[in-house]
Amino acid sequence: MSKILEIKNLSVSYGGIEAIKNISLDVEAGSIVTLIGSNGAGKSTALNAVTQGVPYTGRISLEGRDIRALKGAERARSVGFLAQKNAVSYAYSVEEVVSLGRYAHASGFLSARDDEGEACVERALEWTGLTALRRASVLTLSGGELQRTFLAQVFAQNPKLLILDEPANHLDLIYQKHIFSLIEAWLKQPGRAVISVVHDLSLAKKYGTHTVLMDRGRCAAQGRTNEVMTRERLEAVYGMDVYGWMRDLLGQWA
Ligand code: ATP
């Protein structure tokens, strides 16, 4: 197995308050690592460190190279980030927004759409079911369609590491299922990996191969999802019987 991302002794402070305390983590090719834990545990901050959005101490490496040493375009070719909410304020078409994913691959300004780029954009539109909407203005899309548009943009970017912050947040059930199925399908190509914050523990359990359980900036447990998401560990972090609650909820549908 090849290591796509390696985080070693990561700490992040905001104005002297430590939001992340000494976290280490490996993300292997073919895995979906979910970050779970209660509000304020430091999940988004960990992702922001990987995307170089916050100052940190420790080392973050992408395929063995310190991520800080990579040039912006090089990093952008390797790392795709899908934020929780993507604001749009201009009437770009779906295709234009998806094509922006190719800019990190362009040899110069205005040369983003070479043949390979065209093919990547077409494939991304097709995969996400957006071909028919390609000329629609993004201002007219539903929340689910807009999220799929930004997912298509990161697919077109063709990264090795996909970083997701609550990719299915605010989406209808059908879109939640769709987004995670697309991500699983994307991961089937060799040399790719996903790291994602997931609040919905049922989704984290179903789609995660590995899980990091965070608690007030620290890593309470990490490893294979079924070994981390045990009744005892979840109860210790969330302060309630998560298993009992989930079963109770699901029992209503029996
Ligand atoms: P949630 O589940 O609520 O999204 P989280 O686990 O993603 O939370 P973070 O957003 O990483 O947690 O926040 C971790 C801690 O850092 C919190 O106490 C938060 O208030 C604080 N924090 C986050 N961003 C900043 C910032 N830009 N400036 C100051 N403090 C911040």
Architecture overview:
- The chain has a six-stranded mixed sheet, sandwiched between helices.
- The model has no long low-confidence stretch (mean pLDDT 90).
- The termini are far apart.
- Helix 4 runs antiparallel to helix 5.
- With 254 residues, it is an alpha/beta fold.
- The site of adenosine-5'-triphosphate has 10 residues, from helix 1.
Give the integer mean of the pLDDT values: 90
Ligands, ions, cofactors: adenosine-5'-triphosphate
Give me the secondary-structure category.
alpha/beta
Strand order of the largest sheet: 6-7-8-3-9-10
Q: Between the first and last Cα atoms, what is the distance in angstroms?
A: 40 Å
**Helicity level:** 25-40%
Q: If helices are DSSP runs of H or I spanning 4 or more residues, what is the number of helices? A: 10
Low-confidence stretches: none
Please outline the major beta sheet.
6 strands, mixed
Strand percentage, roughly?
Answer: 25-35%
**Gyration radius over CA:** 19 Å
What form results from the Cα inertia axes?
globular
Number of beta strands? 10
Name the helix and strand elements from N-terminus to C-terminus, one letter apiece.
EEEHEEHEHHHEHEHEEHHH
